[in-house]
Design the sequence.
């Protein structure tokens, strides 16, 4: 995985949310959480694994809505941030945080109803192998996002500390097919780069977001969106 040493540093974990999801970045946080909730609801008693859970943004949210959640990440510092969030939200007893490798998930086959991986596939050096492992432990559903090749992100991708693997829609469809997954839904968003929102005060970022949504509704413009949210179902085995 790209940038593992940087990602696991204590100071990176401590500042991670503030750098990405404060100011106009709150709009990114809101959109990503909405994508996950739209795909997974209803959540009551659903068994969910979140891969690369980081500071627990989604893990804590899902537990708060009644899911039985496990959050897995390679960074001990990120996991500690997640545990602190869970305690503050009063859901520490409803979820579990584990340190582990997404390429070798420590769970039996079909152990979860749903596997979620947000902000993960842009770092995957072998996306097919990772998706195959997610498919193995999920009995019903896999939800993930990808950053897109034909987007503004391609302009500054080289400057990011962990880099990014950028995908075309064709590549993702091929990955799903190769892993016996059927696409239930895909949503494309954010024509403007994420970095622009993060450096913009929320009072100014909100009008930018409105403009972004307006432009995104134009025909064929969604192909230039920075991110796609994918919701896939596990195919039934052929008898």
Sequence:
């Amino acid at each position: 995985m790209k940038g593992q040493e940087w990602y696991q540093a204590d100071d990176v974990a401590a500042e991670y949310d503030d750098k990405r999801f404060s100011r106009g970045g709150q709009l990114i946080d809101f959109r990503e959480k909405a994508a996950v909730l739209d795909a997974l609801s209803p959540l009551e008693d659903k068994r969910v694994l979140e891969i690369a859970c980081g500071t627990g943004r989604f893990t804590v949210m899902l537990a708060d809505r009644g899911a039985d959640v496990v959050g897995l990440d390679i960074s001990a510092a990120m996991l500690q941030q997640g545990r602190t969030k869970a305690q503050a939200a009063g859901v520490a007893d409803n979820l579990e945080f584990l340190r582990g490798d997404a390429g070798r998930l420590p769970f039996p086959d079909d152990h979860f109803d749903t596997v979620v991986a947000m902000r993960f596939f842009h770092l995957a050096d072998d996306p097919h192998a990772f998706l195959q492992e997610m498919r193995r432990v999920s009995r019903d559903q896999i939800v993930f996002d990808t950053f897109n090749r034909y987007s503004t992100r391609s302009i500054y991708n080289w400057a990011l500390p962990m880099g990014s693997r950028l995908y075309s829609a064709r590549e993702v469809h091929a990955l799903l097919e190769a892993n016996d997954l059927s696409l239930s839904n895909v949503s494309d968003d954010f024509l403007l780069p994420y970095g622009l929102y993060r450096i913009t005060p929320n009072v100014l970022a909100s009008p930018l977001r409105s403009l972004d949504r307006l432009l995104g509704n134009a025909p064929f413009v969604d192909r230039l969106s920075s991110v796609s949210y994918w919701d896939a179902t596990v195919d039934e085995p052929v008898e």
Remarks:
- DSSP finds ten helices and eight strands in the chain.
- The first strand starts at residue 47 and ends at 51.
- The chain has one domain: 4-233.
- The radius of gyration is 17 Å.
